[in-house]
Specification:
GO molecular function: peptidase activity
Pfam families: Rhomboid
Strand content: 5-15%
CATH topology: Rhomboid-like fold
Protein name: Rhomboid family intramembrane serine protease
CATH superfamily: Rhomboid-like
Membrane topology: Multi-pass membrane protein
Radius of gyration: 19 Å
Helix content: 55-70%
Number of domains: 1
GO biological process, one term: proteolysis
């Protein structure tokens, strides 16, 4: 199931959504070499990825962090280490990771921005990303696995969308062998299902206290933390005037739709 669009047009151009997507793509291509240069990709992880144990001060200067495929980097304790909860939001580990995050952001981000205004949306996005990073570190502060991706912040966007537009239809692309079909599904069903999958996937990690990334290479508790932050913070960040305008406009466009 892949969300590709929603039946929820915007009143204003989602400038910040475009800028954040641009920043993510710029980082991937320019700083990470679009994944085509293993050394450049590894250097970006060493410098800007979130490593819980490093952030928590559990890796002393001089420690070696293994990245796989014979690559590693040394721990020097620069000031940038304290900024990695922020910088890691703009990094990705591969093309599929990047495309998946950008697609979810594209589908859900513009409407949340349209309900807040641009500056509020930017602060909200960063706050959810930081909350996701905090949840990730809290679950396993000893992890030495570099964590990257915008998915924690985007999870916050999805949590906000659930509160704001639970009954809006989200168009899902279903691909099962040769069966391909687009099916509209209420947003609440899509988002609660996604959230449930994250929680269920993460439960064995809590029970066994294994490293967070054991769930198929995905830091699911960062997703959970970001989503919960979005649900909690949305009422603080939404602009009531904008949400009222949107509700009125949607009703005029689709009087028979929820």
């Amino acid at each position: 199931m892949i969300p590709i669009s929603d039946d929820n047009p915007t009143l204003r151009t989602p400038v910040v959504t475009y800028l954040l997507l641009g920043a993510i793509l710029f980082t991937w291509v320019v700083i990470q070499g679009a994944g085509l240069d293993e050394v450049k990709l590894a250097e970006s992880l060493c410098s800007f990825a979130l490593v819980p144990a490093k952030l928590a001060g559990l890796l002393p200067a001089g420690s070696i962090l293994k990245l796989g495929d014979g690559l590693s980097c040394g721990i020097t304790d620069p000031v940038l280490d304290k900024l990695t909860p922020l910088t890691s939001m703009f990094l990705h580990g591969g093309w599929m990771h990047l495309i998946g995050n950008c697609l979810f952001f594209w589908v859900f981000g513009n409407n949340v921005e349209d309900s807040m205004g641009r500056f509020r949306f930017l602060v909200f996005y960063l706050a959810c990303g930081l909350a996701a990073a905090g949840a990730h570190v809290l679950v396993d502060p000893t992890s030495t696995v570099p964590t990257v991706g915008a998915s924690g912040a985007i999870s916050g966007i999805m949590g906000a969308y659930l509160v704001l537009y639970p009954r809006v239809r989200v168009n899902l692309l279903f691909v099962i062998f040769i069966f391909i079909r687009i099916i509209p599904v209420p947003a609440w069903a899509v988002l609660l299902w996604w959230f449930a999958v994250q929680v269920i996937s993460g439960l064995p990690q809590l029970m066994s206290m294994q490293e967070v990334e054991v769930s198929g290479g995905v830091a699911v508790w960062a997703h959970v933390g970001g989503f919960v932050a979005g649900v909690v913070l949305i009422k603080l960040f939404q602009n009531p005037r904008y949400t009222t305008q949107r509700a009125s406009w949607r009703h005029r466009l689709h009087p028979d739709h929820p």
